[in-house]
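dude i think i finally got it to work??
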Amino acid sequence: MTKEQLTDLTAKYLDGTATAAERELLEQWYYSFEGGELVVELPEGEEEDALERRMKAKIDELNAREGRRKRLVMKVRPYRMVAAVLLVLTAALLSVFFSGRQVYNAQREPRFVVLKDGTKVWLNSATKLVYTDFPFTGERRLSLTGEAYFDVASDPDKPFIIQSGNMVTQVLGTAFNIKAYPGEPFAITVTKGKIKLEDKKTKTVTFLTPNKQVKYANQQPPVLVAVKADVAYSWTKGQLEFHDQSFEEIARTINRKYNVNIVFANKSLEQCMITATFEKESPVSRVIDLLCKINNATYTFSADSTTITLEGKGCQ
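look at this
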């Protein structure tokens, strides 16, 4: 390094304008100097000892700064390791979560599915079922919106728990129908076995056995009745079978099955109670025609056949 280069480099070093490469070059030169003649053109008015002290102080300052940076990196690295471990664990948990979680939807047509545990489920139209079965939990947990008939695979070590709004149904191995459409009465009917039904809101617990049905409607106390259980799940066979149900409730079933919209011009018709059975492939026109005849009502289809308006005095 020439005297001019050294002088220029020293000046830049001291005023902080030297690049990283220039600083490294000067520091290497400084620490490699072993008593030979140090030739540097002094800044005006500065003594040699003072210059040396300034240079040494500057180098020590930069070294201290570098040391802090390295210590900071060393402190950060463990956190990076922890973050990496957490990322791996999160990925593993998500993998377990999604492998143990199944989602089923039935839109306009009923659907039959077999769950991971062997349980057979018939989903009615406009129904969503979420099934979770994690290896580290002692239960099979489901969430149901809509209507479904379950034939549950028995597993005494893993209760079968279904959440439908405020209602929680728990079984071990049995068969039953749940109707839990938003904004409609909740109903559950048992065909075999025994179930426990709990209303989380009111803390009411009900035990149901075959041919028993409990219904919650309009925030009223639950009604427990004896029924023909096969009527509750006749829809799984494509049939329409109603037993002492209101015209309003039946209309909702027809709407979902035939993708229509029934409108009651006379609201009193909604409360007419009906018991009726229709064959599997009965067209909607036949179903509406017979329902209206037994309830002193008339009906009109819209031009596109999607809306059916019901009129008449009804069952008064």
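The first helix runs from residue 3 to 15.
im so relieved honestly
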